[in-house]
Amino acid sequence: MKKLSLIIAIVALVTTGFYISYFSKSAYSSDAGKLEITFDFKRGVPVEPGMGLASAQYAVWIEDNNGKLIKTVYVTSYTSKGGYLERPESIPVWVSKAKPSQLSDLQLDAISGATIMRDGERKYIWDCRDENGNAVPVGTYRFFVEGSYSWSSKVLFSGTVTVGGNTQNNIPVTADYNDEETHNRDMITNLKATYIAPEPSGSVLKYFIGSTEYTVNGVSNTMDTAPMIHEGRTFMPIRFVTDNIGAEIQWQAADQTVTITQADKTIRLKIGNSNATVNDASVPVDSTNQNVQPFISNGRTMMPLRFIAENLDCTVEWAPEPRMVTVIN
After folding, report:
1. Kind and range of the H or E element at 142?
2. Deepest in the core among 35, 92, 164, 258, taking most CB within 10 A?
């Protein structure tokens, strides 16, 4: 098989045989997370000596909820390279979906594995991208593992994964066998699927009303003045936000103005003023309450947290219990 940078194959000898894993370079960097599918593979033996095996073929692929093929994660080489013409019963569902006769050699090389099949654990990773390398939209998708284990006898494993949600362990998987044939039925066993949610790419800050303790990506820190509720809004020394998201802050005592800059964004607020400027455009600090304006308390400048964080393209979440504000950069 041609050597491609798109596919990396790692083969490590373990006590049960060979451990084989196939994954794309982007599998560990996708913003949408990744789906891991593992199972034990056993190549099997011929029904009768000299008859040939006619099995050990399988494919792993992803579809959307409308049955459209999103990506073939893996398919055995024999079938992908024309074996479906010699043996039409070989993983027919995948063949009907992927239409390998219409794929180029380069495309087939990118999804197929070595011809020699050894017993052992298999791991396949979908990087939540389509055939063209584009990240798929957040939502639910169907994954399939089809195996032809003895001539026309086959099994189709399937399950549903939610991309963009929380980590999902032990995703339910259904196994559908097309007949009662038991010979080589243990070709694919112990199939498990896990969706691993992506790690936050920026900072997650948590502040607690009335407490000087706060966290940055789970690490505890201390500020000198606790956040407070004023006019129904959270106010706090904004430096404890800006310093943790890469923004700069300046205090001009002459006119009691605070200037915050980050990339191409500049925000200016003035003590006692219900209006601010964002890139020189005048905007209300709170369109529903003109009393929401910066103020000084015990020598500390208290700023409206949500207004500043959202104008710096952060997400702000409020939890009534335990009166916690989360800022996600």
Report:
1. strand 139-150
2. 35
Please indicate, yes or no, whether residues 79 and 179 belong to a single structural domain of this protein: yes
> Contact, 153 vs 178, CB < 8 A?
yes
Domain enclosing residue 55, as ranges: 7-196
End position of a domain, from candidates 196, 215, 234:
196
pTM across the whole model? 0.57
What angle (nearest 5°) sits at the alpha carbon of residue 8, between those of residues 7 and 9?
A: 120
Q: How many Å from the N-terminal Cα to the C-terminal Cα in the chain? A: 44
Tell me the helices (H) and strands (E) count for the chain, helix number first. Answer: 6, 24
Q: Is the peptide bond before 322 cis (omega within 30 degrees of 0)?
A: yes
Asked, for residue 105, whether it belongs to a domain, the answer is yes
Euclidean distance between CA atoms 122 and 47, whole angstroms: 24
- Number of domains the chain is built from: 2
Distance of CA 256 to the CA centre of its chain: 44
pLDDT at 56: 82
What Rg value do the Cα atoms of the chain yield, rounded? 28
Q: Is residue 218 domain-shared with residue 281, that is, in the same domain?
A: yes
* Residue, of 277 and 11, whose pLDDT is higher: 277
pLDDT at 53 over 70: no
Identify the domain boundary among 132, 163, 196: 196
- If one compares 198 and 206, the residue with the highest pLDDT of the two is 206
Inside any domain, residue 263: yes
